[in-house]
Write a structure and sequence with these properties.
The protein has about 250 residues and is mainly alpha-helical. It has 13 helices and no strands. Helix 3 packs antiparallel against helix 4, helix 4 crosses helix 7 and helix 5 runs antiparallel to helix 6. The longest helix is centred in the middle third of the chain and has 24 residues. The chain starts with a helix and ends with a helix.
């Protein structure tokens, strides 16, 4: 009975992670009761949008389309699968951090749905970086492992930032979900690393370090700019971590 309860809890946590961080349809209502306690499973939730994108990439390559077009198609479907949540967070973070003169104004800008110059530049640079690396991986015929590994490794730092940093505002997704503890971060990070190593071997180790460094530097910047983390900051951390992981894996695998 205990084993069945544990399995049921694991599945519930995965379901919650998918409900929070993707736009994929789920039958029935998502149970929000465990909240931040399910954070360990958030990295695994990133696998589903990645698989959808990879299937599209594989079909595109099979049809004889170029690596560049296949990369763009895969990215489009992955972004649609998450509702551009992380990309939106990156744009809002860039606009707020460099568009405001004090924490209150920065948070106000980050909450504004409109995108500014800094947000556009941040999106263009990260999208271009992801497209360039994915195109190279597709051309080399080794895209599945790196992209799946990047999907899990880039989401683990979000749990760490939530565990180590206080919310910068009294409302929003970050506050509503709750604050996970370091145990959830340890389990989630460990699971992500095991999955990444199974997919890419020892290259997953420096890639995970790169993800942590990228997210950690952003966390320090967020602390100085707004006094904590927000959902936008978490999304920006995922984007920077994903680019970092892909870059390191591409360097090691080529």
């Amino acid at each position: 009975m205990a084993g069945r309860d544990i399995l049921s809890q694991i599945l519930a946590d995965l379901r919650l992670g998918i409900g929070l961080f993707t736009r994929l349809p789920l039958a029935g209502e998502v149970d929000m009761q465990r909240g931040a306690s399910s954070a360990w499973a958030w990295p695994l939730a990133g696998l589903l949008p990645a698989v959808i994108g990879l299937i599209a990439i594989s079909v595109s390559v099979w049809l004889g389309l170029s690596a560049g077009f296949s990369a763009a198609l895969g990215m489009a479907l992955m972004i649609m699968g998450t509702g551009a949540m992380h990309e939106d967070g990156l744009a809002d973070t860039a606009d707020g951090f460099w568009g405001g003169w004090d924490p209150a104004r920065r948070l106000e800008i980050m909450k504004d749905s409109r995108i500014g110059t800094y947000g556009v530049i941040a999106l263009l640079l990260t999208l271009l970086a992801r497209w360039s690396i994915l195109s190279s991986l597709i051309a080399a015929g080794t895209v599945w492992g790196p992209l799946l590994a990047a999907s899990v490794l880039s989401r683990a730092p979000m749990v760490g930032l939530m565990a180590l940093m206080s919310p910068a505002r009294p409302d929003g997704l970050s506050r509503a979900v709750g604050r996970p503890d370091l145990r959830a971060f340890g389990i989630g990070g460990g699971v992500a690393l095991v999955v990444a190593m199974a997919l890419t071997g020892w290259a997953a180790l420096p890639a995970s370090v790169a993800a942590l460094i990228a997210a950690g530097l952003l966390g320090k910047l967020a602390q100085s700019k707004i006094g904590g983390q927000t959902g936008d900051v978490l999304g920006a951390a995922q984007q920077l971590a994903e680019v970092s992981v892909l870059a390191v894996l591409a360097a090691y695998l080529f």
